[in-house]
């Protein structure tokens, strides 16, 4: 019975924020406002592996990628994503997670990949073109108030194309000039998610609204709970297999891995009853005669009961069945 007065325990999670460059401190400040969340900076492999989920913050994407390459973090970050650990990229982090990007600096930059989309790196223009907009929360995780959120776009990217496995969470309606840059598109995606990956072109960490961070923490908790359930199921399966194997080892030899419905094995119980009552009955059970006759002399010898050999009645029964009683 569930106690309605008893609070439901919150699954504690460790959220790492890639702290190479950009607004990682702002992300950590908002994360620490959420119950059951431990937020920490990530700069090396050990700190990454200690995280249940990772946020790649906004900043300068090329600089961030160069530092990650110099510190040898790119392979570790890719393995972290491939292991289906939740990742959320904001602004520069969105570019980092994309499979394809345009508008990059000469020479390009390293991309973690995994998010099936085409991102335009400074789609909304230079720093002076930065802006804010009130946008509706995605219906799939809007809170009870359905209040819009404040989206801060700073030299922001945009998602021009996305694959079939990518869910668009939020779109931005373009003005005439922006539509021309987007080759006629009337809107662009600015928030998406696909499996364990989530990305936004804006900066939720630069506002006081914790709802986007709460959405990511919920994703991390869901993945963590699923893994714990899977691990428990596997452990229970191993224990059940071990118990079955132990029970098999403890079973009588004639029961192990044998088809018990064959006549010779059905006769075992009949033979046991015959052995107990052989001095009191005038005839052995028919199943004994048919199925165990070839083995009778061996079994009777193993009984080593002098009274059985010395009984005149037993001698007569043995003679009628053509059985030779052997000495003990």
Automatic annotation (TrEMBL):
Lyase keyword on record: yes
A biological process term (GO) from this entry: pyridoxine metabolic process
Polar residues composition bias: residue spans: 313-328
EC number assigned by the record: 3.5.1.2
Keywords linked to the UniProt accession: Glutamine amidotransferase, Hydrolase, Lyase, Pyridoxal phosphate
GO molecular function per UniProt: glutaminase activity; lyase activity
Record-linked SUPFAM superfamilies: Class I glutamine amidotransferase-like
One GO CC term on file: glutaminase complex
Enzyme category, top tier: hydrolase
InterPro entries per record: Class_I_gatase-like, PdxT/SNO, PdxT/SNO_CS
Region (Disordered): 307-328
Flavoprotein keyword on record: no
Short name of one Pfam family: SNO
Top-level division of the source organism's lineage: Eukaryota
Catalytic activity: L-glutamine + H2O = L-glutamate + NH4(+)
Annotated PANTHER family: PYRIDOXAL 5'-PHOSPHATE SYNTHASE SUBUNIT SNO, PYRIDOXAL 5'-PHOSPHATE SYNTHASE SUBUNIT SNO1-RELATED
Protein family membership: Belongs to the glutaminase PdxT/SNO family.
Protein name in the entry: glutaminase
Organism: Apatococcus fuscideae
């Amino acid at each position: 019975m569930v106690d309605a007065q008893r609070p439901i325990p919150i699954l504690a999670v460790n959220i790492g924020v890639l702290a190479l460059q950009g607004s990682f401190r702002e992300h950590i400040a908002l994360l620490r406002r959420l119950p059951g969340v431990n937020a920490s900076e990530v700069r090396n492999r050990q700190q990454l592996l200690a995280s249940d989920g990772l946020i790649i913050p906004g900043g300068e994407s090329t600089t961030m990628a160069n530092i990650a390459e110099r510190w040898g973090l790119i392979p570790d970050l890719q393995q972290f994503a491939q292991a289906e650990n939740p990742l959320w990229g904001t602004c520069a982090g969105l570019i980092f997670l994309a499979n394809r990007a345009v508008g990059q600096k000469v020479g390009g930059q390293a991309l973690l990949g995994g998010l099936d989309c085409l991102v335009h790196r400074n789609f909304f223009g230079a720093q002076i073109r930065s802006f804010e907009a009130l946008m509706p929360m995605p219906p799939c995780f809007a809170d009870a108030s359905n209040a819009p959120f404040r989206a801060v776009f700073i030299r922001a990217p945009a998602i021009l194309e996305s694959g079939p496995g990518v869910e668009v969470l939020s779109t931005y309606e373009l003005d005439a000039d922006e539509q021309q840059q987007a080759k006629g598109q009337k809107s662009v995606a600015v928030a998406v998610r696909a499996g364990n990956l989530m990305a936004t072109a804006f900066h939720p960490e630069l506002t006081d609204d914790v709802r986007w961070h709460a959405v990511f923490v919920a994703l991390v908790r869901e993945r963590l709970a699923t893994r714990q359930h899977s691990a428990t199921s596997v452990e229970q399966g191993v224990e059940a297999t071990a118990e079955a194997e132990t029970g098999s080892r403890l079973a009588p030899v004639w029961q192990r891995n044998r088809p018990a419905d064959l006549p010779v094995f059905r006769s075992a119980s009949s033979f046991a009853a015959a052995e107990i009552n052989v001095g009191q009955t005038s005839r052995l059970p028919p199943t004994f005669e048919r199925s165990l006759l070839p083995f009778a002399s061996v079994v009777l010898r193993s009984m080593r009961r002098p009274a059985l050999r010395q009984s005149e009645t037993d001698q007569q029964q043995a003679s009628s069945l053509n059985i030779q009683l052997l000495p003990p």
